[in-house]
Amino acid sequence: MEPSWSLHLLSEILSAFSTDDPDNLRNVVNRVAESVEAEVAAILGTDGITWGIGLAGQERTLMEQLAASKPSTIPIAAGRLHTTWAPMGGSNLLLVGRLAEPFDLEERSLVRAMARSIELCLRMLEAISAERQARRDASHQASHDPLTGLPNRLLVLERLSSWIRHPPEDGASSTAVLFIDIDRFKWVNDAHGHAAGDELLIHISRMLQQSVRRDDLVGRLSGDEFIVITRTGNPEAASELARRIIATIRRPIRVAGIELSHSASVGISFIGPNDTASSVIENADMAMYQAKALGRGRHALFNPGMREQAKQRLALEEALRQAVLHNRIVTHLQPIVRLQDGLLAGFEALARWDHPELGPMAPAEFIAAAEDCGLVEDIDLQVMRLACEAVAGWQRREGLEPLRLSVNVSARTLGAADLVERIQPILRGSGINPAQLYLEITETSLVEDIQSTASTIDRLRQLGVKLAIDDFGTGYSSLLYLKRFPVGLLKIDRSFVADLGQDPEDEAIARAIISLAAALGVQVVAEGVESGAQKSLLLAYGCDFGQGYLYGKALSITESERLLSQSKKPRQAEQGPAATPASGPLAV
Fold first, then answer.
1. What is the pLDDT of residues 209-220, one digit of tens each?
2. Of 76, 137, 462, 575, which residue has the fewest beta carbons closer than 10 angstroms?
3. Are 226 and 208 in contact, with CB atoms under 8 Å apart?
4. Which residues of 171-190 are buried (b: 16+ CB within 10 A; e: fewer)?
5. Chain-centroid distance, C-alpha 253
6. Do 85 and 196 belong to one domain?
7. Where is the domain boundary, 276, 303, 330?
């Protein structure tokens, strides 16, 4: 065998590793056999033969069994196989066998040289493959969400840009972007922990992938925000997809051993002539916020007017942020009067804001914005602190009997994990008796978010703080919750008070609420009392307290203090909530 020919063979073997096609290694083994006119060649490792030619099933097993002893001849079905074994590093071996005659010294040397060459090439292949896999992994991690495995914002923008550059050729369909936000997701994390929240997000990602077509793109932008990009023929098809997604997400699931029912709000936008990937996602985002404003758990289509509304909302939020920072949110107090004798029983604390350009604003005009931009907790607690300080101060200075104080708090504030820790300094600093303080929440928020707020409500009970249920009768209460939690007050919504004496249905509702409260041992405040006739009917029904323009509108703390100073001295404490005689606008 000529040395030049042997070197040529080694060169061919090395060149076979220039690609990472697995079949090339099989070709290498075949070339090894050809080079020494052998019928059998194989590479053996700890897991047996990885590559081999010329061996039947039983013979492969036999070679694996004899690898440790490395015999020079092995009987097989075709005859006596002459073998040569060459180490390849570690526990790997190169086996070459032929039937004709034993291998001479030069052939054995050549086989050993080929084994070393193959070993070096395999190591090089492994290093190259590992580097390529690392690059693929890094690319995947950079473009996919680590929790759900969905494309992340970077890849979504890239794919959407590609769709914008290459619109459908038929011209009949267009590209729709659906922006999906999980309603009140923060409360899942607060109530059940981030592990439960992650489990919910993974489940939702799977449900979204099952709800769309094969060619649609599902991605996760951040937190609880997902996106779907789809080709569709008309807005109704996109709306139908949104409805299907909302219905799918609404199905109850078990997370961390607890059954959760959740909803999603969806905004839809279509790619326009001048849109970029970022702008069309922003449009869908604005439509999603419109869906939330309509009541959550629904969808909305983007229209250009939403962009102007978004600018106004952004300006409102920035002005609100400055107002909170510089203590421009002021506290007003509206009197609550005992119907039986017209004596002052307490106040409801309300937030007011004098916008630098829009003028005085009621809570309904800015609280929703405060919730969205994360300021509502600061507002609620600032109003609470000022009201507690004022009422407690009046009692100390004027010798008043304890007055109840009802303070509105949003569902987000009630769901805050640190609410009790933030209320305790207010109670200590003001000196007010916790039993005087009522946190006023809406009926709907009590029921909808009960899982995330149950622990907080129980801790409030331990402080002595009670709940007042606002707008009672307009939502859907569970009597079990009214019994379980420290509800001390029900407030009849003003819509049922306005037509008392004229609408039999409103009278029936008012009577039912008052009877229910009496059965539960809970007191009742009627809101929106504006006439003596309304007061008389409520008194006849057994209502405890009234609140409305008949007794006085909401006034600043300074104005409320002035009215208190004009009132008569308090009488001795009576059973039930203590009261102070009122005069002026507080008199019946």
1. 999 988 899 999
2. 575
3. yes
4. eeebbbbbbbbbbbbbbbbb
5. 15
6. no
7. 303
Helix (H) or strand (E) holding 60: helix 57-66
* Residue 399, domain member (yes or no): yes
- Mean pLDDT score, 34-43: 88
Query: Residue 262 burial (CB < 10 Å; 0-12/13-18/19+)?
Result: buried
Question: For residue 225, how many other CB atoms are within 10 A of its CB?
Answer: 17
Q: Do the beta carbons of residue 409 and residue 437 sit within 8 Å? A: no
Within 10 Å of residue 546's Cβ, how many Cβ atoms?
28
| Segment among 148-162, 227-241, 371-385, 473-487 with least mean pLDDT | 473-487
- Could you tell me if 110 and 168 lie in one domain? no
Mean local confidence (pLDDT), 445-469: 80
CA 554 to chain centroid: 37
CA distances from 296 to 381, 446, 456 (A): 26, 16, 24
| 3-state SS track over 112-130 | HHHHHHHHHHHHHHHHHHH
Q: How many domains does the chain have?
A: 3
Separation between Cα atoms, residue 492 and residue 74, nearest integer Å: 98
568 within 8 A of 583, measured Cβ to Cβ: yes
CB atoms within 10 A of CB 562: 12
Q: How far apart are CA 195 and CA 198, in angstroms?
A: 5
E strand or H helix at 398? helix 376-398
Of all residues in the chain, what percent carry a pLDDT higher than 70?
A: 88
Can you give the C-alpha Rg of the chain in angstroms? 39
Structure tokens belonging to residue 41: 């060649």
pLDDT tens-digit map of 46-58: 888 878 888 888 8
Residues 391 and 439 in one domain: yes
Residue 117 CB partners (closer than 8 Å, separation 6+) = 10, 13, 14
What integer pLDDT is reported at residue 106 of this predicted model? 87
Domain presence at residue 576:
no
* Range from 29-33, 436-440, 478-482 that averages highest in pLDDT: 436-440
Q: What's the DSSP call for residue 434?
A: G
Provide the 10 A C-beta neighbour count for residue 218: 24
CA atoms of 483 and 517, how far apart (whole Å): 11
Q: Are residues 479 and 348 in the same domain?
A: yes
The pLDDT confidence band at residue 582, using thresholds 50, 70 and 90, is: very low
Residues in the chain: 588
- Alpha carbon of residue 368 to chain centroid: 19
Range of 379's domain? 317-569
Place of tokens 């039999």: 504
* CB of 123 closer than 8 Å to CB of 17: no
Q: Using CA atoms of 35, 39, 43, 46 in order, give the dihedral in degrees to the nearest 10.
A: -160
Residue 405 CB-half CA count within 13 A: 32
**Tokens 């009278």 found at:** 507
The three state secondary structure string of 331-388 is EEEEEEEECCCCCEEEEEEEEEEEECCCEEECHHHHHHHHHHCCCHHHHHHHHHHHHH
